[in-house]
């Protein structure tokens, strides 16, 4: 059996991009590591960081201007004089992504999600968005929403509803997961994502979720996409997980509805701990559970030597803007 | 009336050291800004960062070796061959601090706290500690513990117990504060600090606090000491606040016991919000209340445009180690 991990190991497995100041590019003299800043019109703040190999292979259109000088930049151009910049950006992203899909240059773009992700921190009227499967290629922020559903027994013991992912899933087959979780579509809020995922994944009634689900934190990290993920590797992916808690009565039992979940287990805190340290959870769901443990006093300064590093590392400052200002 | 602040403004007022990579010293060519790394024996990780003006004025003993070359360092020496490094460090700190107090070179050292603070992340057998009033001069981490006491009315409304500091306090007179808070002495845990402060400041029974106080998070920030604080200014002070929640019944009423608290008010969430945005709270207590609001869903992504920046900024990575490894 492999060595048990620590909680900090698990957090670092999710937040696994090197702890360099990504905004101070280029961070290395290595030409393959000096990332390109993705710049939206009239905004000096980089909204993403792109690998040189991706910039080289992308079938750029005239909507973008590429500079190979330092700092290396991919500038999205706005010919509209700023009257509808968000639409201009969305059309430019769609055009170049369609072209890349046709040319079949990136494995990432063969993934099946049909929805768009929102680019966080864009400062225009209207929303900037691009195909979910392309977000990591451009290095823009991705958003997920995760809700931990738990109950208390008569004796007051806290128990957590934990799903096992279907063995047929494209990503993380057979791993344990957050009770309810999903990628947040461009056009919805994290809370609305949780409401429909709670129905689709766990058959939880909408009215109950709307009334009792509580926003409690956000986890931020920067992931480096790994070899074997089925896509490009070495990408710099800033990620946000909006976290919710939902305490339910013992009569509420989540039921799989779509084909993503094999079964739900009602696990004790000790059972969840063991499963975490044996790496049975999907990696970013481990971070969500560790954040839950921190907020509920299960992990604390008296029992965990890495407490402070865990707490700060669960909230890594992102290298991209998260608000318009 | 002055402009109302935003929650993010308040968090930045507490975490007000420039967002530079302090560990990559010197961060500026300005000779007054190139901080000195405080190095403990046989450990390459800086445990503190000291201002050039402080290094120049400190009446160093032979226990320390100062290098003015880059990287500038203050190296604590261990003549014991590592057999009792913690004691060697503690004696060296005491000797130089005593000497500085006698010579009356630093306003900070005239402050009255007689207790020691622990140096976080020291890797030896035994604890490394130094006089609380000297911690910020050496730039080592400081620890506080804060507990928010709240109740729910019959209708389920959340109300928070908020003390006003005595107008006679040396620091932050008349400001609103966390229900129970104090600096964590070297020899105690944050939880033990909360237990005795809950008695001393709010007359809350020890047994009830031990049973029901819940560790819920830690806030980390780096403060730049300000002119007018009664001590040296421009110091780089890494700070940790261990946060606890305590829900009590409506029959529990905190009562001032020592002379630090003028009165306790039972405030609604809206009253607390207003007081925060009018800057009526001691600055780091505002961060504790904002963290409480995040964890209780009062501030969330749907109602706060700066949500993600608030959440990450409440947990700034510290430039000093927080664990022995």
UniProtKB/TrEMBL annotation, chains A, B:
Q: Which CDD domains does the record cross-reference, listed alphabetically?
A: NUDIX_Tnr3_like (cd03676)
Q: Which domain of life is it from?
A: Eukaryota
Molecular-function annotations in GO: 8-oxo-dGDP phosphatase activity
Q: Give all residue intervals belonging to the Nudix hydrolase domain.
A: 142-291
Per the database entry, which stretches of residues form a coiled coil?
none
Against Pfam families, the record matches this protein to: NUDIX
Signal sequence segment: none
Q: Which InterPro entries match?
A: NUDIX_hydrolase-like_dom_sf, NUDIX_hydrolase_dom
Q: What is this protein called?
A: Nudix hydrolase domain-containing protein
Q: What species does this protein belong to?
A: Neoarthrinium moseri
């Amino acid at each position: 059996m492999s060595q048990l991990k620590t909680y900090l190991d698990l957090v670092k497995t999710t937040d696994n991009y090197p702890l360099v100041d990504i905004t101070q590019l280029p961070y290395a003299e290595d030409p393959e590591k000096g990332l390109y800043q993705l710049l939206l019109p009239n905004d000096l703040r980089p909204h993403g960081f792109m690998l040189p190999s991706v910039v080289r292979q992308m079938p750029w259109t005239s909507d973008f201007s590429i500079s190979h000088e330092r700092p290396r930049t991919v500038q999205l151009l706005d010919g509209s004089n700023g009257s509808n910049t968000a639409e201009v950006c969305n059309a430019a992203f769609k055009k170049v992504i369609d072209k890349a899909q046709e040319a079949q240059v990136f494995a990432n773009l063969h993934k099946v999600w049909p929805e768009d992700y929102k680019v966080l921190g864009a400062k225009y009227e209207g929303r900037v968005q691009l195909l979910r499967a392309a977000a990591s290629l451009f290095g823009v922020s991705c958003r997920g929403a995760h809700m931990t559903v738990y109950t208390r027994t008569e004796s007051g013991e806290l128990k957590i509803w934990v799903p096992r992912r279907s063995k047929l899933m494209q990503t993380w087959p057979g791993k344990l997961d957050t009770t309810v979780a999903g990628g947040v579509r461009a056009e919805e809020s994290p809370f609305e994502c949780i409401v429909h995922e709670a129905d689709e994944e766990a058959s939880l009634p909408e009215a109950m979720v709307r009334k009792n689900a509580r926003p409690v934190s956000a986890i931020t990290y920067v992931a480096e996409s790994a070899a074997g993920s089925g896509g490009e590797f070495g990408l710099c992916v800033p990620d946000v997980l909006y976290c919710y808690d939902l305490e339910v009565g013992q009569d509420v039992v989540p039921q799989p509805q779509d084909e993503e979940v094999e079964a739900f287990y009602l696990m004790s805190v000790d059972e969840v701990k063991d499963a975490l340290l044996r790496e049975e959870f999907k990696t970013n769901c481990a971070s969500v559970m560790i954040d839950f443990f921190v907020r509920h006093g299960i992990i604390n300064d008296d029992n965990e030597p890495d407490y402070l590093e865990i707490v700060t590392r669960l909230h890594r400052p992102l290298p991209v803007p998260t608000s318009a200002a």
